């Protein structure tokens, strides 16, 4: 609890201090009012007996002022709490995502422990967490009220009533925390199911909106979603139900203790052990105690605390899962100058029981164009991820100009990643303007200005001309004036981004399936341009289209994670192996299609 409060103070000192002061005033004023009411009754009795009304008037005025203050204080508390939550929200958003994005590699994102901890840190979601420090203060305020009230009862009637009433309040709190904890534990074991449920939700409302209808799967996905949520929530709900029933018993004990206390006050009044004023104060305090515990807030505060602990431990967990990087700093600003080498590289995805790449050895010489072909699932895109240092090889090494990518520090590796101009297979569609979408390919901010040339070569200009605000059009149809591109148009844009990256000095061009969504003309242009572009640039192109691949100086065939053939197009055709067979198959298909066209 202290941790949450310290966090509040660190991020938003002013609002937290204001909230703490106001919460303290709320507690003190509640107890003071209970005491004052008794004094008013005593003064009233005295006035009735003819002792004058001035003290009564004074006490009534004080009580009224206190009441007024108590109606204003919550407003102040609300204002301070809102300011505090705003400050925390801003901080929390970065804290949750920051550690997940920090490593240069992506291994940690596949780790179930990291994914779970991340989900748990967001369990109350970040809005709930931002309310945490406020909840703690509100809890402490209510605790202070019950302690003050108990003291009032002890002093006004008999001392042992104080621990009895306090015990009852804290018993309710203790029990509620236990129930809350077991509920949280039930939740914690269900993050996987919740994740699946939200994935289905996303599928139903975003990714699969069209296909779900075409395949008549809308009902199926709704049922799956319900079933997943049900399975995730049922244990939590049944635990809640059990808690609610047990609560009946707990609250009955608490009510019984309160009733005993009230009877004792009445008895003391009856036998003249306490004055009417004294009894009034004590009864007010007993009532404060009866309703004073705040188990709901306690449970929420504990939950926020657990979330905060997960959030705080996230960076450490992420760094323990992201492989340790050595201290070695190297300069790769002009790499590759000699070559990039895969030396007997094997790789297995975390949690898989088979290698995706095994014993891959190849060399991309600086300035040469290189192509990789292979059937679906052969491991081509995986090889690109390794080349970019997103994953480390399970065995073997990848060197750039002789420097092992696994043996350099994060900054150097990030430097290498910035040397790569890439069009990856599942390229990113940024909700930015066309210009910015292309410009992010550039190495530095100054180089971002002129994207027109790269865009022209990628065939993007006719696409841009038809957009509502041309280059400034935001490519996000959810914003006013935003637009959406077709699959092929997006691919041209991604290509422009990679070309722009080369134009602004990147050292390695990687194109993974650059032609997959291109029309025939765009593909032909790409082939021509690729050859021109590759002159002098180290490049790796992956494609199922042999028209694109055949121009590369060296070609390798990847099959089931192994390089099975290498050579130039002519050499591979002569060798008459797997490459030649695949090439012939595609060529025959094109030829057949051509004949059909000329027959028609
Ligand atoms: N993140 C991942 N976790 C586990 N396995 C993966 C992951 N990504 C890919 N794989 C597996 O690795 C294998 C190789 O995938 P990869 O994407 O490298 O193939 P590819 O050669 O690029 O295929 P394609 O021609 O279809 O693009 C596949 O069997 C795939 O299931
Ligand atoms: Mg691929």
UniProtKB/TrEMBL annotation:
Bilayer-spanning residue ranges: 16-37, 49-69, 146-172, 244-270
Keywords annotated in UniProt: ATP-binding, Membrane, Nucleotide-binding, Transmembrane, Transmembrane helix
InterPro entries reported in the protein's UniProt record: AAA+_ATPase, ABC1_TM_sf, ABC_transporter-like_ATP-bd, ABC_transporter-like_CS, P-loop_NTPase, Type_1_exporter
Subcellular location: Cell membrane
Domain annotation ABC transporter: ranges: 340-585
GO cellular component: plasma membrane
GO terms, molecular function: ATP binding; ATP hydrolysis activity; ATPase-coupled lipid transmembrane transporter activity
Membrane topology: Multi-pass membrane protein
Transmembrane among keywords: yes
Keyword Iron among record annotations: no
SUPFAM superfamilies for this protein: ABC transporter transmembrane region (SSF90123), P-loop containing nucleoside triphosphate hydrolases (SSF52540)
PANTHER family for the chain: ATP-BINDING CASSETTE SUB-FAMILY B (PTHR24221), ATP-BINDING CASSETTE SUB-FAMILY B MEMBER 6 (PTHR24221:SF654)
UniProt-recorded name of the protein: ABC-type multidrug transport system fused ATPase/permease subunit
UniProt source species: Microlunatus parietis
